[in-house]
Amino acid sequence: MARNLLQSRAWEKYAKSEGRETIWRDGDGYEALAIVQETPLGKYLFCPYGPAITGAEKKETGEAERERELRALDFALDSLRAAARERGAFFVRIEPTVAFSEAELKERGLVKSHDIEPAHTWVIDLTQAEEEILDGIEKTKVRHWRNHGKKGITIRTSTDPEEITILASLLQKVGERDNFTPQDAKHLKGQMEAGFATLYIAEYEGKAIAASLVYDYDGVRYYAHAGADDEYKKLTAGTILLVEMIMDARRMGAKRFDFWGITTSEDPKHPWYGFTQYKKSFGGYEVDYAGTWDLPMSKMKYRIYQMIRKVNRGLRKKS
After folding, report:
1. Cα 164–Cα 169–Cα 175 angle in degrees, nearest 5
2. What backbone torsions phi and psi does residue 208 show, to the nearest 5 degrees?
3. Residues 6 or more apart from 227 whose CB is under 8 A from it?
C-alpha cells in the first residue's frame, strides 16, 4: 500500500505553513510524521494515518509480512516515545493504515481512541481499462458525464490558490444548509500552495456551479472537498465532476482513487450512511485501517484528559 499523503513531506510543508510544529522520524521499515498538538493539559503528538509502514516491495506474505509490519511498528513507537519525552508530550496518537488487530495494538500499550481520520475508506483500482472503470459506475452517472457538454456544462482545472474562493463559497452554502462548519478558504488555499491539490470547477452559463478539490500523491488521487450550488441540482454537476476526476486520474497514471472515508454501518440513520452509499455507487472496494490509537506517556494525565473529553461530549449533546 502506498504511503498516505498525511505521512508525507508535502503534508509536513502544509502543516508548517499553518504554523504547526512537526516532527519527522524514519528508521527500519517505517516513516512517521507527527504534528505537535496543544491541550490545556499539555502537548501530544499526532501521526495522522501513520506511522507509515514501508518496505512492502520485499513482497513477504502471511506471517512473515505481519512480523515485518509489527517489527516496523515497534521501531516507530520507540522513536515516537523518545520524541514525546523530548517535548514533554503526555501521549502519542497514531493511525496505522495497516489493519493491525486490537490484540496486537493493546500488547504494545496502545489505547483505542475515537477515530480522527476515517478508519475505513472506499477505493477504485485505476489500473483497470477505462471501460472497466466506467462499467463499475452507475449507468446514469456515466451518462450525465458523457453528455455534460450537451447540457452546456464545461469543466476546467486550476492550481491557482487564489481560485480556492470558488470552492470555499460553495462549501459555505453547503455548511449553512447541512449545519456543519467547512474548512475555510485560508486552509484550503494553503493546501493548494503546498503543491499537492488541484481544483476542479464545473461552470454553466459562465457561473461556477460545482467545485471539488483533489489531492495527488504517490500514485493515489484523494477526493478531499466538494461543493455544489443547490440552485442547479438537476444538472448533477458534482457527480459529473467526480467521474471526470476519476477518469482524469487514470489518464495521468494514478493507480488508485481514494474517496477518503466511509462508514461500515448499515443503519440508514447513520450520519455517514448517505454519502457512503453515494461513494459506493462509483464502483470499487473497501479498505480498512487500524483506526485511531493512543500511547500514554503519563497515565495519570491521560486519564484526566479522557475524563475531560467525556464531560465535554456530554455537554455538547445537551446543548
Report:
1. 120
2. -75, 115
3. 167, 169, 170, 171, 173, 174, 182, 210, 211, 212, 238
| Residue whose C-alpha cell is 480556492 | 164
Closest CA to 97 of 32, 178, 3, 184: 3
Hey, what's the cell of 289? 485501517
Calculate the CA 227 to chain-centre distance.
Answer: 17
Among 139, 140, 217, 227, smallest CA distance to 183 is for 227
Give 226-232's long-range contacts (Cβ < 8 A, gap of 24+): 227/167, 227/169, 227/170, 227/171, 227/173, 227/174, 227/182, 228/170, 228/174, 228/202, 229/170, 229/173, 230/173, 230/177, 232/204
The CA distance from 64 to 43, in Å, is 36
Q: What is the pLDDT of residues 67-112, one digit of tens each?
A: 999 999 999 999 999 999 999 999 999 999 999 999 999 999 999 9
Q: Is the Cα dihedral 229, 230, 236, 239 positive or negative?
A: positive
Cα–Cα–Cα angle for 71, 76, 77, rounded to 5 degrees: 100
Sole residue written with cell 461556477: 208
Rounded distance between C-alpha atoms, residue 66 and residue 95, angstroms: 17
Query: What's the whole-model pTM score?
Result: 0.93
